[in-house]
Amino acid sequence: MRSNYNIIASGPKEFYLEKDSRARVFEEWAKLLGMYSDRQLTKSSDKLPALSGLAKIYSERLKDHYIAGLWRNSLVEGLSWTTFGPGVRRVPEYRAPSWSWASIDGYISANELPLCSHEAAILDCHVELKGSNPFGEVSSGWIKLRALLVPLFLNEKIDPDGFGVPYAKNPLARTENGDPNGTYSRFDIDFSNITMEGAQDLVRSMGSKKLYALMLGKTTEDDELSYFSLIVTPTEAGPYTMQRLGYIVQNENCMGPLDAASEKPIITLV
Fold it and tell me: Which residues contact 48 (CB under 8 A, 6 or more apart)?
């Protein structure tokens, strides 16, 4: 019944925040981001401020701190957003850290990490606000976490039309010991609307970087083990200060054997 809900937004459909579990509220937040993410704003810098009123309501419901579009007590899940469809791009001006969906124009899905074991441990995080509004613009931010890093290598072969391919012209990425064909990556770039030559040029430019899968979690479904990771690359600040470039899901065959004793370094995401 409608009396069991609070109306918090309206648009093509009325949107309700259910009064029940944190998981359900988090799911509703993810749906809201999907509705909001690809809207065209008059001022690009309004990406976070335009949602600040709703973010404040969710902060009260979740009893949680807002961290440049993510929630402090659910950062591993929050980091797992992915991009879809035409028009996806990382904005040239600084609007949010690379790990925040607010750094992207275009549709994002914020509910990609299923129930799974967390493989990354959040150690600390911080954002610098541009003003006094904790739900508004930010000037910088970082997340410090401990996680496994697996080197990635790109395959320059791209499907010419993307037909039947999960992510159109997104390149295949492989690990050193996994399936040599790799699996489709999902970079924060719209590969679908560029020429084959343009896509290959982008792959070559990314291939010149050191790329890693930063493992967030893993789960088993239908007897198949899947790993959920960010695609990251080091910044000029040092080998363990990294920025997000995309997202990737790999099965056990594509990931390859992992040493249970592998060190999990401390990474600073910016």
Answer: 55, 68, 69, 95, 96, 102, 135, 136, 137, 138
* Confidence at residue 221, expressed as pLDDT on a 0 to 100 scale: 81
Q: Which two tokens stand for residue 255?
A: 């990931």
CA distance 159 to 165: 8
What DSSP letter does each residue of 131-197 carry, written as one string?
A: SS-TTS-EEEEEEEEE--EEEEEEE----SS-TT-TTTTPPEEE-SSS-TT-EE-EESS--TTS-HH
User: 264 is written with which tokens?
Assistant: 């999990």
Q: What is the pLDDT of residue 50?
A: 95
SS3 annotation, 101-134 = HHHEEEEEECCCCCCCEECCEEEEEEEEECCCCC
Asked if 233 and 187 count as a contact pair (C-beta separation under 8 A), the reply is no
**Euclidean distance between CA atoms 96 and 28, whole angstroms:** 22
Note whether 142 and 263 are within 8 A (CB). Answer: no
Lowest mean pLDDT among 141-145, 152-156, 161-165, 224-228: 161-165
SS3 label, residue 58: helix
CA distance 106 to 99: 15
- Domain limits of the chain? 2-113, 149-269
> How far is it, in rounded angstroms, from Cα 207 to Cα 224?
29
- Of residues 189, 153, 149, 197, the one with CA closest to residue 172: 153
Higher pLDDT, 87 or 175: 175
